[in-house]
């Protein structure tokens, strides 16, 4: 199974080395990134077109900037190449829908990089929901806080917190519940600096999601948790409740006269989701090899984006926004 | 300090025995309850009027049914007796305001029984907020779930979940934040049976509160957590985060081939808030003796009621409701 | 049920107020303590002899200094009064045996104040051992550390750490295992100051106990844990393991840039064992009223003392000491 | 840096793939194992002699059966090759000493595979001891229990539990304390089956270690913890206490009517110490490349073996055994 990789930034590198070192059944045969120094890696270098036209390449991993995703997805589809694309597929719902349509028409597989679905903690929750242990799920609670806001240059292109950051949580809520969201209410604020406000963005929010059967999810987001990356989840159902705490670098408790002290959560997503990135890529390769369905598809990207757009509207209009409006 | 007690139900008994056994500086000299068997207690029995007219009684503890609270508060005020009143003061905002006005006119003290403010866990959170450890509070999260719904007869008189149960959480949010709520969004559902729906009530909700400075609180409520009474709180601020877990009857962890097993939360409010009931009464007695302010006043009852009424309206109209509308 | 109380020090007061406030079926009718100011309590004051000769007193609670215990126990027995005696019964094994013999001859009940047996955590462990959850117990581990050493004046009369402090743990090991100890190895040291060494005592130890069936217990003691009172227990068996952690004043976790911080254990035995003191007294009263066996008898005192003496010998001779030698 | 690997069993494979995938600065150029199927790996295959005579190989990793370790270590030393050797170096103290002497004479580096020193939890404890946070360490407590006994064929060659299993804990105690052990007391038993007894071995033990300054360590071992691999450590010192709990596959807590349920420890050493194996090998490679000292040397093997032999003697003679006797 030969692959091409477009974009050798932070995430591109993760996928590159995971495949090189830990997924022996696949091989990246060409890498493209106009900005990165690729001289040290022992893989052929090319342009995106070189990858798209490479006859042996069956699938392409897209980790380039967001505004190139939809174009590249469509180009891959036209060339009959399967696609693994980092989120978001695009910031525009129309553009996403068009890309998905093209993908379907060309019969290629598109997997979206919602890597948190592959975290051991969330998988455990999913298992306990699916096997009925928690009964009918009624409330999902997601805490998702970053250790600090990204640079303003990044923020300005990101589509805003809901489309850039909360979108992971919207996907998680759908994934855990196995149901579609019907509407959104969001209250948001800026606490992390005037720059964010000037950029028209927000950094802190409480978002309530409603589902078809009146069950509900609540997400709280902050761009700046001084104690690090906070990623917790809880499902409350008719037969029980399950929650997961953060992972930590170690399990020590230190007792002195001042109190008991223990380790902060793993600092950020690279540390917390190391194994999730590996597992999602393994499942992508596996789906290609064995002809199955990819576990996260284009429709998942579309739904998460709709929720994000509804959240934006809800903040602006201070009301619950039905997904049907989006 | 001589006291009268009106209402010898579940809560009335708690106060009675706490004062008898553990608050030696006060004494209940007369008890009134037409429904309870008072023959075994060694205290004089009388009607509410007997208590109101008892010359030595300086303060009255009101634990009778909700619909008698406002009348009794006013009657006490007119007789110049200080008042400790279980929540709610009344279900009608006008009635509450009138009672508070009368209390103020007669210069008596009125303390409301929001006993959770006196729980060691929440006091600890309050301390860390007040001393600046968490910085500027941005998000308060309250989990508040009962082990099972009360009888329908109770529910029908209760004013509904927001006025009966969530009102404790509304008070807690105000207390922890030290700020006033500006608006409410609530999504609610019925998962615990058709009876509740038929009674026009709800049993599960997510409620977002907004504060003057854009900070926010989120409360999730359920009338039926099969694993018991779930009372947790978290404050997220600019300098840190603090949360408290449930209390348990013991701290055991049992490991066998199936997993690790530990104790459920203390079953319900009588177990969880045993010491809170004592501490609130001690502070009431103390405020009377030393002439200070009572820690929870009539205005607190009024504000919590306003939030509850806004939540009801929000569910009905599917929008954020400004407190100014109430 | 009328009782007399001899000794109104720290422990005597606990029993006094527990009975007064929370055990209505019993009443202390006379208190004796030559050193304490008893003017404020509303109970008759007398000499120990007054109590022994008081016709209505059925049982005596002995909380006076250690060197008076055996004499008072014997005097009570001769007068036909039941006895609740704080540990130790005596420091001399012969004296203990003699007192027990007299107690048996006079057919009175003697309960020893090993109050830790009545702690909710240890009761939970005992339950899981008795109901077979942990299978055949193989290893018991007890961590028992004080927040600081007692005054030297106390230490000099105490019989040393094994007889004064570890004796609780020796009793606990027997209680949890439900088996007799066959031998002891102890390694001890002095880390808390030259005074303790000068007094011929030790302050830190690891003690291994062996049981008839080769199962084993290990206790670690320190007179000075700077972080407070550390009382944990673990049982490892053929079907599982159970342990209990310390109780804390609250369940908060505070996260800031430095780490996660939580509450230290309850400071010392008065805080940790508040409820144990109540429960043991209730069981004593109950055994008297209903004619049952007291849950901790004189033989328990004798066995714990034998283990303590064996531990002393083991440290001195640097070898395992059979209980048969004692 | 070219390496040879002798022994491609469970541990040999771990080192092989760690170097192949995650330590790019080193390369295994030849593997030797008469029993394993090596056809699938892309590395040259040879006899141990081929490796010893391979001119480019600078260091040899020895993962063959225990009874070959000392011979291979000596052969490597004579050929001037650095050595990474799995524990134990040998079961005989004389043989170990001879091998160490030869290693020193030939000026090669010998690192012993006490991989637990490289576990994040124990490293954290070591850090808090070294930086003075716990003050002067007084008590070290090690819980070390396997999920099940190894096959009898293995047991018979293993030298017994102390030399095979507890030896890791003896090394850990020395490592954490940074001091030498002066004597040992051990009580041991057989609870896991007659076969173990017939083989002259034990499966459960409490071992007390004494150090030069009277500080102490206690280890409890079992060959069969039905709930999995239990690896905990605690250090108690003059300024505080630190302990580490087991690692788990996830951090979930599931609450239902029966209780709260969470994950068992990672099943066994392959899961628990995955990263420790990698880190120890990185440090070995690093020490070779940069000319530093290896972090675990032959003397560490010798001292751990002495403690194990003393423990055996202590069980037999039921007394504390000075290390000077060994």
TrEMBL record, chains A, B, C, D:
PANTHER family, alphabetized: BINDING ROSSMANN FOLD OXIDOREDUCTASE, PUTATIVE (AFU_ORTHOLOGUE AFUA_2G10240)-RELATED, NAD(P)-BINDING ROSSMANN-FOLD SUPERFAMILY PROTEIN-RELATED
Entry's EC annotation: 1.1.1.18
Stretches assigned to the GFO/IDH/MocA-like oxidoreductase domain: 122-242
Family: Belongs to the Gfo/Idh/MocA family.
Record key words, sorted: Oxidoreductase
Domain Gfo/Idh/MocA-like oxidoreductase N-terminal: 2-114
Pfam families (UniProt xref): GFO_IDH_MocA, GFO_IDH_MocA_C3
Top EC class, one word: oxidoreductase
Entry annotated with the keyword Oxidoreductase: yes
Name assigned to this protein: Myo-inositol 2-dehydrogenase
């Amino acid at each position: 199974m030969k692959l091409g990789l477009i974009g050798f930034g932070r995430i591109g590198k993760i996928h590159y080395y995971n495949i090189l070192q830990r997924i022996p059944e696949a091989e990246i045969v060409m890498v493209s990134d106009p900005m990165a120094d690729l001289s040290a890696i022992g893989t052929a270098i090319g342009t995106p077109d070189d990858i798209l036209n490479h006859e042996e390449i069956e699938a392409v991993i897209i980790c380039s900037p967001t505004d190139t995703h939809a174009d590249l997805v469509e180009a891959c589809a036209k060339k009959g190449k399967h696609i693994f694309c980092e989120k978001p597929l695009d910031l525009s719902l129309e553009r996403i829908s068009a890309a998905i349509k093209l993908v379907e028409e060309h019969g290629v597989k598109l997997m979206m990089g919602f890597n948190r679905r592959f975290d051991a903690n969330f998988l455990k929750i999913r298992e306990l929901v699916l096997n009925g242990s928690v009964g009918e799920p009624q409330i999902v609670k997601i805490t998702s806080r970053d250790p600090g806001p990204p640079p303003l240059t990044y923020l300005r292109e990101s589509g805003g917190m809901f489309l850039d950051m909360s979108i992971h949580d919207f996907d998680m809520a759908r994934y855990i519940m196995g149901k579609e969201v019907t509407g959104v209410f969001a209250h948001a604020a800026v606490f992390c600096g005037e720059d964010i406000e000037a950029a028209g963005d927000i950094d802190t929010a409480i978002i309530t999601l409603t589902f078809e059967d009146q069950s509900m999810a609540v997400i709280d987001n902050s761009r700046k948790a001084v104690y690090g990356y906070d990623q917790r989840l809880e499902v409350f159902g008719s037969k029980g409740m399950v929650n997961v705490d953060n992972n930590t670098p170690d399990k020590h408790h230190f007792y002195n006269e001042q109190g008991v002290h223990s380790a902060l959560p793993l600092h950020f997503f690279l540390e917390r989701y190391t194994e999730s990135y590996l597992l999602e890529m393994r499942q992508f390769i596996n789906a290609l090899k064995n002809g199955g369905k990819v576990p996260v598809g284009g429709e998942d990207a579309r739904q998460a984006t709709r929720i994000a757009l509804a959240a934006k509207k809800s903040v602006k209009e201070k009301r619950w926004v039905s997904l049907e409006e989006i």
